[in-house]
Amino acid sequence: MYPIGQFSRKTGVSIRTLRYYDEMNLLKPSYISETGRRFYENEDIITLQKITGLKTLGFPLKDIQQLMGQSQWDITGSLEYQKRKMINKLVDIEKNIELLEYTISLAQSNQVIEPEIFIALIQNNLHMESQQRWLKGYLPNEIVDEIYAVSNDHNVRYDAHLINIINQLKIAYKNQFKDTEVHTILKELFSQVPHELFNRLLTETKLLDIQLDSMLFMSPFSKQEEKWLIEKIENMLKDYKTI
């Protein structure tokens, strides 16, 4: 028999991990002395190898625990299931890498980006699919699809320009620009939306009643800035006909 320390050195698994496996009933010591010392046998090495092998394949400990409790394994089904999980993780990792590349490019295109703007861009990018589903509960599907088709066509140069417009609006709020100056910035903002789509949005009455889910749609503006901005947009659109 091997005391836990010796068993740890022999297998390369830490004492802390062995104790945790004991608590989870994954690998119980073959013998525990009256003083509480744990001892293991050679057969326990085989059990430990099964655990570490399944961990290497990406199985979480709860799944390993379930598998270890079965007299017969549906190994093909288990491996196929684990493969699907790992593919999904890989897809998520690839999306995160793309997002990192995008944000790095944005950061390089803008010397200074306010944290609120930067985080809003990242969050809205991450939740784009959920945003589409949510909006389709309020607006016609074709309008939502067109909005996000425009978003998907954006490049770093476009988004860097959008950041500059948002910065200009924040400066306009802080310094209380005249309405004519604010309207000039807003026209530049609206010009980023295709003319036909913009006019369709103007005629969509439900658009005014939508209260966006703040968990899905993160604004780069503070509450005070939003209130000011909505007022300026409403005033501008009263006489607005075409861009």
Task: Sum this structure up briefly.
The chain has 243 residues and is mostly helical.
Write up this protein.
- The chain has 243 residues and is mostly helical.
- The chain folds into two domains: 72 residues, Multidrug-efflux Transporter Regulator, Chain: A, Domain 2, CATH 1.10.1660; 129 residues, no CATH class.
- It has twelve helices and three strands.
- It has a three-stranded antiparallel sheet with strand order 1-3-2.
- It is elongated, with a radius of gyration of 29 Å.
Helical stretch count?
A: 12
Q: What characteristic shape results from the CA principal axes?
A: elongated
Task: Count up the domains.
Answer: 2
- Helix content estimate: 55-70%
Please give the largest β-sheet.
Answer: 3 strands, antiparallel
Adjacency order of strands in the biggest sheet? 1-3-2
Query: Separation of termini?
Result: 84 Å
Mean pLDDT: 84
> Roughly how many Å is the radius of gyration?
29 Å
pLDDT < 50 runs, ≥5 residues: none
Total strands: the figure is 3
Q: Which band does the percent of strand residues land in?
A: under 5%
Order of helices and strands: EHHEEHHHHHHHHHH
Classification by helices and strands:
mainly alpha
Features:
243 residues; mainly alpha; Multidrug-efflux Transporter Regulator, Chain: A, Domain 2; 12 helices
Helices and strands in order:
Elements: E1 2-3, H1 4-11, H2 15-23, E2 31-32, E3 38-40, H3 42-56, H4 61-68, H5 75-109, H6 115-126, H7 128-135, H8 141-152, H9 156-174, H10 179-190, H11 195-203, H12 223-238
Antiparallel strand pairs: 1-3, 2-3
